[in-house]
């Protein structure tokens, strides 16, 4: 067992580069050493996480993912069927994975900068025993999901883009339909996300605030909707998105025109949202004055212009 602990210790030191005292503290701490032993002895425990509790403080170990990362983490993952770990087989049955503070971005970077360029290599594509088409498709789907999840975690809408190497590799276009299929799948994912944003229902959203919902909540809702639409529009008119549309149109794929149609819908929705917010802000000016007054006469004085403004909004809104 000591030899197995040493095997973990060597990899922890290589990955996290802790001080010698940090390693000693980790192994002397009963709770953390129990996690290491549990991973090594228990065939039903498949993961082990070792990380710094703070930016560069003492090390900690856990068999479940830490709630937050302040620095890099190393994850040990058992592969395949459960086996009793020994010094002879641990190298073949346990995978070591470094993980940055923001795991989703880290894995997305690894996929885009390591695995996808390798698969787009002509030598790999020409291999007779490897189904590169299917692997490229699956990796792009996985990469796209990672980008979307990372965006949601930050409160933003992200339209995942295929690998640059894929778009600029002539071998993939001349020899394989995989490239076009990947781009079509990408566009389908875009449309799914965009349609969800276009289904914006302010009345349903305002109800989530319960009985305390007010005009300020509605202003926030419209601001967020405009922000999402602008983010989508910026991504749709980006050079990479336009390159995808161009490739699809050259391949006579119907999904090229789908992007153009969706972009029109986004532009229209953005114009309407900005108009609604402009009307709302016109009312907010009088609502703020009404809210700040204390006397009844002042409230009546401010109420009438607000009602007149409301009439104008009702008259001129579409």
Automatic annotation (TrEMBL):
<feature type="domain" description="Dynein heavy chain tail">
    <location>
        <begin position="180"/>
        <end position="318"/>
    </location>
</feature>
<dbReference type="GO" id="GO:0007018">
    <property type="term" value="P:microtubule-based movement"/>
</dbReference>
<protein>
    <recommendedName>
        <fullName>Dynein heavy chain tail domain-containing protein</fullName>
    </recommendedName>
</protein>
<dbReference type="GO" id="GO:0030286">
    <property type="term" value="C:dynein complex"/>
</dbReference>
<dbReference type="InterPro" id="IPR026983">
    <property type="entry name" value="DHC"/>
</dbReference>
<dbReference type="InterPro" id="IPR013594">
    <property type="entry name" value="Dynein_heavy_tail"/>
</dbReference>
<dbReference type="GO" id="GO:0051959">
    <property type="term" value="F:dynein light intermediate chain binding"/>
</dbReference>
<dbReference type="GO" id="GO:0045505">
    <property type="term" value="F:dynein intermediate chain binding"/>
</dbReference>
<dbReference type="Pfam" id="PF08385">
    <property type="entry name" value="DHC_N1"/>
</dbReference>
């Amino acid at each position: 067992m000591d030899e197995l602990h040493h095997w973990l210790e060597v990899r922890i030191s290589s990955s996290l580069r802790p001080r010698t005292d940090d390693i000693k503290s980790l192994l002397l701490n009963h709770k953390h050493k129990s996690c290491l032993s549990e991973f090594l002895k228990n065939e039903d425990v498949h993961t082990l996480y070792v990380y710094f509790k703070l930016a560069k403080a003492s090390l900690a170990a856990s068999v479940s993912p830490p709630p937050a990362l302040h620095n890099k983490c190393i994850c040990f993952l058992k592969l395949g069927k459960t086996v009793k770990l020994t010094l002879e087989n641990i190298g073949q049955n346990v995978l070591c994975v470094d993980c940055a503070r923001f795991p989703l971005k880290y894995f997305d970077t690894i996929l885009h900068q390591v695995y996808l360029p390798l698969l787009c290599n002509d030598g790999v594509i020409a291999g007779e025993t490897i189904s590169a088409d299917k692997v490229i498709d699956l990796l792009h789907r996985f990469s796209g999901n990672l980008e979307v999840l990372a965006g949601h975690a930050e409160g933003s809408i992200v339209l995942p883009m295929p690998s640059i190497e894929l778009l600029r590799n002539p071998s993939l276009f001349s020899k394989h339909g995989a490239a076009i299929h990947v781009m079509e799948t990408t566009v389908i994912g875009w449309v799914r996300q965009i349609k969800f944003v276009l289904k914006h229902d302010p009345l349903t959203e305002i109800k989530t605030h319960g009985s305390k919902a007010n005009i300020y909540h509605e202003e926030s809702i419209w601001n967020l909707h405009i922000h999402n639409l602008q983010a989508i529009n910026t991504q749709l008119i980006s050079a990479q998105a336009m390159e995808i549309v161009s490739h699809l149109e050259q391949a006579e794929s119907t999904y090229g025109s789908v992007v153009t149609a969706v972009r029109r819908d986004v532009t229209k929705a953005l114009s309407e949202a900005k108009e609604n917010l402009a009307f709302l802000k016109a009312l907010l000016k009088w609502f703020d004055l009404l809210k700040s007054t204390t006397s009844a006469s002042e409230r009546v004085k401010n109420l009438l212009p607000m009602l007149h403004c409301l009439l104008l909004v009702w008259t001129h809104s579409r």
